[in-house]
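Narrative of accomplishments. A recurring question from our advisory board has been how the design workflow behaves on a single, concrete structure rather than in aggregate. To address it, we present the structure tokens for one chain from the evaluation set, followed by the sequence designed for it. No filtering or post-editing was applied between the two.
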């Protein structure tokens, strides 16, 4: 059995999120998804729209997700800690992270324990940020 793992904020859930989860599930038997707690999303310098408890319930309800768990940190070290707990075989992330130094380091660390890092296509036409900006613009014109 191949166990896959991925993480994300999943705020304002959209087709890009669904594409990533669907593609990941197509490459593993069991997909575990870490959903970022509200407190750790400050790195994106934006406010969360959908609270954590609702976001994790949405992710749990996706048919491609076998298990949704809280994500406590965005650090690459945390992903290695999660590997020790979950023993996943594959880590999935969006290809927008490809070539980023900290992800290259993580890939080397994962490879050393036999885990493959797979970069999945990022849905370029949509993002939670663009949705948030659009909603902000709509509010200004009301």
């Amino acid at each position: 059995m191949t166990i896959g793992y991925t993480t994300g904020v999943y705020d304002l859930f959209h087709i890009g999120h669904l594409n990533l989860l669907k593609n990941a599930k197509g490459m593993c038997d069991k997909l575990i998804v870490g959903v970022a707690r509200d407190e750790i999303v400050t790195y994106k310098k934006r406010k969360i729209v959908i609270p954590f408890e609702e976001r994790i319930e949405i992710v749990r309800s996706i048919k491609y997700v076998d298990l949704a768990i809280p994500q406590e940190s965005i650090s690459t070290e945390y992903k290695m800690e999660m590997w020790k707990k979950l023993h996943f075989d594959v880590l999935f992330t969006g290809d927008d992270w490809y070539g980023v130094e900290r992800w290259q380091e993580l890939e080397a660390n994962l490879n050393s324990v036999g885990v493959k890092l797979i970069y999945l296509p990022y849905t370029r036409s949509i993002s939670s940020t663009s949705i948030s900006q659009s909603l902000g613009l709509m509010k200004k014109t009301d």
